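May I ask you to review the protein record following this short note?
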Amino acid sequence: MPRAERPAVGGGFGGEGRILYAACALSQFLVAAGASVVTTMGPALREANGLRASWLPWAVLVYALALGLLVLPLCLLIRRIRPLPVLILGLWLFVQSSVALTLVSGAAAFLAFRAVQGVGAAALTATAFALVLALDLDGQRSDRLLLAWSAVVVAGLGTGLVVGAVVGAEWRWALWANVPLTATAGVPLVRLLRSTRQRKGEVGAPTGDGGGGLGVGQGDGAQDAAA
């Protein structure tokens, strides 16, 4: 079976690597903000869903548990299949659960959809990890990329806390904002992955050596490696 050549990091995405990295960073900003936003939303959120104050930490915990427990399995899944299906699943779950959280009543339903939102966040995070591992933006050092990534996550956590504190009775708008923001991050990722697959073969095919990272082959060889 021919082996798909792993790019010299980022070669499979050409000049679109920066756009890809920015979209991944935005998705992680939203994931981090989604984790913290409910912590400071206050009594309006609790009254709308019957959440007692003592239950509010669970709205954070179920999200964090789903995210933390599923990232690694989804990363391993991406090594077996293309990143695109996992990305689309994450986008769909994150958006749909964000909308559902504004519509449901009852603490149990609210916590259940927070868990679903965490599953979507895990899929987005796993996809972003896989794509960023395959990137090298014009030779920038990986430690700089990791530093920028960490800064984005911290900014997302802080923004979620601030937004949750200021929205007050209009807390639903903070969750509805996930729809256009997730689309802003997700649409470029989906389009870039599809166009890259069409140009250079299968993105996300196994590298043939079991290593991490994305296998980006060339033409028919990549197709054979993905088979």
